[in-house]
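step: validate -> pass
step: tokenize input -> pass
step: predict -> running
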Amino acid sequence: MSIQMEHLDRGLAAVSTSEGIFISWRLLGQEVTAATAQGLTAADFRLYRNGMLIAEVTDSTNYLDRSGSLEAEYAVAAVINGKEQEQCAATRPWETPYLEIPLQKPADGITPAGQSYTYSANDMSVGDVDGDGEYEYIVKWDPSNAKDVSHVGYTGNVYLDCYKQNGTLLYRIDLGVNIRAGAHYTQFLVYDFDGDGKAELMFKTAPGTKVIRYEEGAPVSEAFITLLPEDEAAGYSHNDDYRMNGAAYSEHVAELFESWHSHEEVLAGHWPATLEECFGIAPEYSYPLSREDAVRLADYFLDVYAPSRSERNKLRDFEGFILKGPEYLSVFRGETGEELATVRYKPGRHDDGLMWGDYSWNRIEPGNRVDRFLAGVAYLDGKKPYALFARGYYTRATMAAYSWDGQELTETWYIDSGWVTMNNPFADTLHLQDGRDPDFGKLAKQGAHALSTADVDGDGCQEIIYGSATIDHDGSILYSSGGILPEGSAAPGEYAKLGHGDALHVAVVDPERDGLQIYMVHEEGIHGPYGYTLRDAATGEVLYGGFAKEDVGRGMIGKVEPDVPGLQTWCSESHLAHEPSRGLRSAKGEKLDERAPGTNMNIKWAADMTTQFISGTFEEPVTIEDWKRGTLLAAEGTRSNNGTKGNPCLVADLFGDWREELVVRLADSSAIRIYMNTEVTDRKLYTLMHDPQYRTGVAWQNVVYNQPCYTSFYLGTDMNWSKVPVPDLL
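step: predict -> pass
step: emit ->
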């Protein structure tokens, strides 16, 4: 079955090193004809310097020219069936060990509360927006006051910029004041959805979102997105500001209480008929509540009940959250930023998080679980890419799949677990219950702070790994994983879902097994059967795992022990980044070492197909570490993102051979730097961007807690080359 993928150029890059000029280029998927135990049967290459042939390369797609110079020009030509093809465009070596792309940093700002903020380059993605075979770079700008969705406070606007590789800024999309800044809010997709050879952008928008076009570094025009006709008729406008302050939130609570008698859950008999019963106090008021009584109960809730649940419940200080107003999903032309379509975001928030469980835990957090968003790309029919947008995973979980044909954004399917029933929305911990929908209810509570897309059942179509559950390509639930609670848990012997987790990896971990595996950490503590698991991706069966009484917050996989078959897995002791690890394990679950590598991000960097990991948080420079060899790269002057998460802007196979590049920002965000490994490799593999699982992984890497992307085949020092799929590209 042929699959729609990008038409990339040769991706030729040359870098000056202490030993000479390192040259690297892509083997394209369509240039591979067979895979055998000895390697891939594919195009060979001739390398030219200043128009003169200097090497014929058959075992790889890189070369070290020890006689090269910075003034030289290099070009490569493929040799297919003994016939030389057209040479690619010539390139000159980088003068530095990295490619630097200058950025135009947004201006500083001041919040309605009078707090100043600055900007730094954050998550990134790539796509060929103009069809020339070279990637453009989409940069998300986060303000310094970006918030976790559970934290109060105003944030600055979020911006998405599109840059050419030479640093030309094509346009900037200002998401506006009605999209809050933080890892959980803006999940942006960059992909060629309609197959016209040019990538589109797709993400959540709101009134106030606008596109600013640039020419020669200066803005030349701006245009707001289209409001839906019914919203415009209702009086909504691009001048609206839906951010709440403490006084507005107090009024919001009073209005909620005044209509308590008519709330759908009260009428259905799920919730207490009176707020006094919810709060565990003596009955005092008659219902429907008068305005005066609603205000009194709101004051009691804000000043007495909420602080009694947790000293952190300072709801009078509530500000910056967006609990009302239209929510949209928009498609933009990647080349120009032009808005192509805008539809209602599905599902809407419904309320301020009350039915999503935001008031039910000891920490009362309006606007938290309701605003947990995920996004991804999947080849649902095995042929073309579809966009996925999700809302919710702690309780209710939903996802909509869309196709884009260049004219219309069409919903393909929609899945919704339904509400998780609470007996008291102000005191119910909702541990791992199903949602109300008879078909999709078991999806509730199973999501993670990321998702993955992969063909887990071998039918040629990609599924969506939604944390501890997997959604089949047709929108049905393939399975929802759980286990028996062990000794030391809250209810030994009972069955429970695996539940939510912060880290998720889908790859061929154990090449001796058929198919893919899922490595995930879980945060349910004593209420869940495992703190970490390796599962069969086709069935959800737990292959190995371990119980943990606390949230296990970090987990990673990679080929760090070259002589041990398969990939290795490891995770933290708890949710704290500085906690010790639970040790390094083999693909079979055997403990190999009490120590373990870092868990922030991995990278396929080395020539021998081992895996490295990325370190550096806050004000530390970013480094690439090898479990055996130590520090391989110290990117001085650069910084990672997202605090203790220590994420680079992007890790992906952007050009050159099959290895991944590291993309990081300078400390002042005046530019991004792209580092590539200049160690010569003798492995000949097509660009990872022509493996559908890897390419869709790059598209969702920016989502929430950035996770590495993996190929659909086993990649490691001990790989069986005969199992590498030969791409069938349109």
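step: describe -> The chain is about 10% helix and 30% strand.
step: cleanup -> pass
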